[in-house]
Write a structure and sequence with these properties.
Immunoglobulin-like; 4 domains; 10 helices; 691 residues; 8-stranded antiparallel sheet; binds ligand FHN
């Protein structure tokens, strides 16, 4: 479905430049009426581009320790620096070159609409004078309140002030787990609930003192943090400031660096891919790719591997063309100045944005699939739509082809030269625009194409269904690329025609068939035919069990060093088995551990059952000896699907899970057709009666 720009709240934003009026930090969103998600996200979606700042005590060693020069903000634990040694940096903290206005001015000039600064990174050191701890700038010779100076400067320069805040804390005595190598810091007396209260108190300080527009959590992946704690922290943020945006790392479902939550219970206002750009956007889902300019987040003076301005700008364009935001990082030096190579890139980005910023800010995702010449961003403009074509590579014939564009074209020109129209012609279902011989910008020249009405893209419709096989029935839908197209379908294998039924809603399928569909515009077929076969399947028969008892049997293996589940599982001794009521890990499962669940699932009725197996690290699900879900391997929390047609009665069920190190999670859910996923009830889990 074409993704059109969402309504953007009229924002009262100051112009760029010292002395400009203060930005109304949450605008209309601060009104007493309940805030809609669109209201909350409006300025953020309009922004498209922000600055990440990783700054703290780790900038003092600048990435070097004991002869190794490849450290960054993780230096305290990567270099295994004892706490007492690391604490000495606090007295060396003296950022005499820190100029918050200079930072804000560079961000604004680069076209960045918000700044996210590390209020506290994993080392626990706070860039404000917190009442909760002395491990902060208040205890340094300079004593400067970095967050106060930067938040004030952001307001002066018309950009939003935001804070990154790490849940993981390598300094606080109540935070667990300790680093594996930190044998000199006893855990006796450590109270994680007390740490959670400390965390809440500091977040409350940050919001009440500095009013961040975004709370960017991180460090949520260790076993002591869980969904319940994340939900409490998210709800605290909502209570403190309903207009404040909170990322998905407040919770535990982001699934590693790909950053998109994998669970329906996950909370957070936007998804957070890191150091990567997703292949496509996700209509209706807010997301932001955070990336470095070189190879480190925190300042590393030896890091010479800097991305070019071309790469950084094309990342911004690619991300915006997928409907996402780009959070580009700067790691300031210990004295508070930006590295010169970062300053240079920000200025060059700013030059491009000063000409082409309207092709980024306030735009929505492309209405096309891949474009060989570059990218597209979109802006609705009343009864027309503006397409911004970002040309990375000039086609050999000098023409840009817009595949399947069905709209009438109002006009086309270079964004930089609106006075000069470009030739446009229709070529069947495509529109083509002639480029001038010389493209003004080698990184990305923006061509504007204004079209009448909402975008109409003659892209083939997409068939969706929970499953392509079924026992009783299955429901299918056919999605169109544009609301201006009519999709017609057949179920008897014949070609759709203008008189075939419209695929406007759910299509019930009760017998084996092939669904065929194509799109029409003004009665004309304008796409090819898509098709999907659906099969009626016979449920696997239930197994005969002489006698069974409630619960599953579970065996625990320790000291395992698996990267994948072995083909031949170790044989548990009879005494290693215990009976459990559910497929769950229980308290603190630990590391280098594996669990084997064995027994039966009591299926209530003949049907096609879908399964969702989620785990950190690997897991596999067998039903009646058939591998139904393979979620094996070393990974963060990831959910994988599977399905099997099962007759009413008992079916053999086996789940194997392992955790090598770090986070440990395991959930298995199931669903019948058109039902939501849910945990398998304890009453449905049984095992052979003890012989
Ligand atoms: O461990 C951090 C890392 O230091 C950095 O802050 C990035 C930026 O998002 N986040 C974590 C790694 O995912």
């Amino acid at each position: 479905m074409a993704t059109l720009p969402r309504a953007v709240l009229p924002l009262v934003l100051a112009g760029v430049g010292a002395g400009a009026p203060v930005v109304a930090q949450h605008d209309a969103a601060r009104s007493a009426t309940p805030l809609s998600q669109d209201d909350r996200m409006a300025w953020w979606r309009e922004a498209r581009f922000g600055m990440f700042v990783h700054w703290g005590l780790y900038a003092i060693p600048a990435g070097a320790w004991n002869g190794n020069t490849d450290y960054g903000e993780w230096i305290r634990t990567s270099a295994q620096i004892p706490l007492a040694t690391y604490e000495r940096f606090q007295q060396q903290w003296n950022p005499v070159g820190f100029d918050a206005d200079a930072w804000a001015r560079m961000a604004a000039a680069a076209g960045m609409k918000y700044v996210v600064i590390t209020s506290k990174h994993h080392d626990g050191f706070c860039l404000w004078d917190s009442a909760q701890t002395d491990w902060d700038v208040g205890g340094t010779p300079s004593g400067r309140d970095i967050l106060r100076e930067l938040s004030d400067a952001c307001r002066r320069y018309g950009i939003r002030f935001c804070t990154y805040h790490s849940i993981m804390d390598w300094h606080h005595p109540d935070y667990l787990p300790r680093r594996g190598w930190e044998t000199d810091r006893p855990t006796a007396g450590a109270d994680f609930d007390r740490f959670e209260r400390y965390l809440h108190a500091q977040v409350t300080e940050l919001v009440q003192r500095y009013r961040p527009a975004v709370m960017w959590f991180d460090g949520e992946w260790e076993s002591t943090w869980n969904h319940e704690r994340g939900l409490r922290l998210f709800e605290l943020c909502r209570r403190l400031d309903p207009a404040m945006i909170v990322n998905n790392r407040v919770d535990v479902h982001r699934g590693g660096m790909q950053g998109f939550a994998s669970s329906s219970e996950a909370v957070g206002d936007f998804q957070t891919p890191e150091q990567e750009i997703p292949a496509t956007g996700v209509p209706g889902v807010d997301w932001e790719s955070c990336m470095t300019m070189n190879r480190h987040w925190g300042w590393n003076q030896a890091d010479t591997v800097w991305k070019s301005t071309e790469e950084l700008l094309r990342n911004l364009i690619d991300i915006a063309s997928k409907g996402g935001n780009y959070l580009l990082n700067v790691g300031p030096r210990a004295d508070g100045t930006f590295p010169p190579l970062a300053v240079e890139r920000l200025a060059q980005i700013g030059q491009w944005m000063s000409v082409n910023g309207e092709a980024i800010h306030g735009t929505a995702a492309s209405v096309f699939d891949a474009l060989p010449f570059g990218r597209c961003t979109v802006r609705a403009q009343g009864d027309t739509t503006r397409l911004y074509l970002h040309v990375f590579a000039r086609p050999a014939d000098g023409w840009l082809t817009l595949p399947g564009l069905g709209n009438e074209v109002v006009g086309a020109h270079l964004l930089a030269s609106p006075e000069r129209s470009l030739p446009v012609r229709r070529d069947g279902g495509d529109v083509r625009v002639a480029l001038p011989d010389a493209l003004p910008d080698p990184i990305a020249t923006v061509v504007v194409v204004d079209v009448r009405g909402a975008p109409i893209v003659y892209r083939a419709p997409v068939i969706h269904a929970e499953s392509t096989d079924f026992v009783h029935a299955v429901t299918a839908t056919v999605a169109s690329a544009s609301p201006a197209l009519v999709v017609r379908y057949t179920l008897d294998g014949s070609e759709p025609s203008p008189s075939s039924p419209r695929a406007d809603g759910e299509i019930a399928i009760r017998s084996a068939c092939t669904l065929r569909a194509r799109a029409y515009h003004d009665g004309r077929p304008v796409t090819g035919i898509v098709e999907q076969a659906f099969a009626k399947v016979t449920p696997a028969p239930a197994v005969e069990v002489e006698a069974s008892e409630p619960g599953l049997r579970r065996a625990r293996f320790t000291s395992v060093d698996w990267n994948r589940i072995p083909g031949a599982l170790p044989s548990p001794a009879a005494g290693d088995w215990e009976t459990v009521p559910a497929i769950a890990l229980g308290a603190s499962p630990g590391e280098h551990v594996a669990l084997w669940f064995d027994g039966y699932v009591d299926v209530p009725a003949d049907d096609l059952y879908r399964f969702a197996l989620a785990s950190d690290d690997g897991s596999r699900l067998w039903i009646d000896g058939e591998l139904v879900v393979d979620n094996d391997g070393l990974h963060a929390m990831v959910e994988k699907p599977g399905r099997k047609a099962l007759a009413r009665g008992l079916h053999a069920l086996r789940v194997v899970w392992f955790n090598k190190t770090g986070g440990a999670e395991l959930t298995l859910r199931w669903a019948r057709p058109a039902q939501a996923f849910a945990a398998i009830p304890a009453a449905a889990l049984r095992h052979d009666a003890q012989r």
